[in-house]
Design goal:
mainly alpha; single chain; 268 residues; 12 helices
C-alpha cells in the first residue's frame, strides 16, 4: 500500500468512536485548513504523508457527520496528493487518485453543483491520461469525463480551455492507424489550438505546455499523412507487386511500402 493511503487510514483511525460535536467539527475544519496551508507552501513531497493524515481525519469526521460538501473537498485533496506522489507504481497511484476524484464528482452531482463536479471530472480524466501505460478503458473513461466537463464548465473560461487541452491530448493518444489516425491527430491539434488562444489571453501557466504539445502533434501528423499516402500508393499498385507479397500488402500496406522505399530488392 502506498504511503498516502496508509496515512489517510491512520488519520481516520485517530477519530476513534468519538461522537461528532461542534467541537469535533471545528477541529476537523482547523486540521483541514492547516493541511491546506502547509501543502500550498510545500516545495517537496516530504510531508505529503502528514497532510494526508490530516485530510484522513477530517474526512472521517465529515463522513460520520454526513457533511457532503466537505466530504467531496477532502476526497479531492487526497486525490491531489496521490496524483502528485512519486511512488514506485505511478499508474496505481494515478488509478487511486482518479477513483477518488470520481467519488467527489458523484457527491457534487448529488448536491447539484455541476460546475465543481466538472472540475473534479477533468482531474479524474487527467490522472488516467498521465499514466505511463493507459489502457483502452482508461482512455474511454477519460473521454466520458472530459465530455461531461465540457458540458458543465463556463465556455471559453480558462478552466474550460484546460479541459479542451486535455481532450486534445486524449485524441492524440487514442489507438488508430492510417487515415483514422490522421483524422484523430487533426482533432487533437484543433482542440489544443482552441485552448491555446484562451491560455494566451489569460496568461495561463498552461500556455507553454500547450505550445509544446502542438509541436509534437504536428510531427505525428506529418508521419501519419506520409503513412496514409504510402498506403494509398501501395494499394493503387498492388497488382504490380510479386504475387507472394500481395496479401501482406493488403494487410500491411505501410510496412510493405516502407520496404519498397528502403530496400525494394528484398521483395523480388
Amino acid at each position: 500500500m502506498d504511503a498516502i493511503t496508509q496515512s489517510v487510514r491512520r488519520g481516520a483511525a485517530g477519530l476513534g468512536q468519538i461522537t461528532i460535536s461542534q467541537a469535533v467539527r471545528n477541529q476537523a475544519k482547523l486540521v483541514f485548513e492547516e493541511a491546506d496551508r502547509a501543502r500550498d507552501a510545500a516545495v517537496s513531497q516530504v510531508n505529503y504523508s502528514t497532510y494526508a493524515e490530516s485530510y484522513g481525519y477530517a474526512l472521517a469526521v465529515y463522513e460520520r457527520d454526513n457533511d457532503l460538501p466537505n466530504m467531496a473537498l477532502c476526497k479531492s485533496r487526497i486525490a491531489m496528493l496521490l496524483s502528485a506522489y512519486q511512488w514506485e507504481d505511478v499508474d496505481l497511484t494515478k488509478d487511486l487518485a482518479a477513483e477518488l476524484f470520481e467519488e467527489a464528482v458523484k457527491i457534487l452531482e448529488q448536491l447539484g453543483d455541476m460546475r465543481s463536479a466538472a472540475v473534479e471530472a477533468t482531474n479524474s480524466a487527467v490522472c488516467r491520461l498521465m499514466k505511463h501505460a493507459p489502457t483502452r478503458d482508461d482512455l474511454e473513461k477519460a473521454r466520458v469525463r472530459l465530455a461531461f466537463s465540457m458540458r458543465h464548465k463556463m465556455e471559453y473560461s480558462e478552466d474550460w480551455a484546460y479541459t479542451k487541452f486535455n481532450l486534445g491530448l486524449l485524441w492524440s493518444m487514442l489507438p488508430a492507424t492510417g487515415l483514422a489516425r490522421e483524422q484523430q491527430l487533426v482533432k487533437a491539434k484543433n482542440n489544443i489550438y482552441g485552448s491555446l488562444r484562451i491560455f494566451g489571453d489569460t496568461q495561463s501557466e498552461h500556455f507553454g505546455p500547450a505550445l509544446v504539445e502542438i509541436a509534437r502533434i504536428e510531427d505525428r501528423l506529418i508521419d501519419a499523412r506520409s503513412a496514409t499516402l504510402l498506403a494509398e500508393a501501395v494499394r493503387t499498385h498492388i497488382d504490380e507487386l510479386p504475387v507472394r507479397v500481395q496479401q501482406n500488402a493488403h494487410e500491411n500496406p505501410v510496412a510493405i511500402g516502407s520496404i519498397l522505399v528502403d530496400n525494394p530488392e528484398t521483395l523480388g
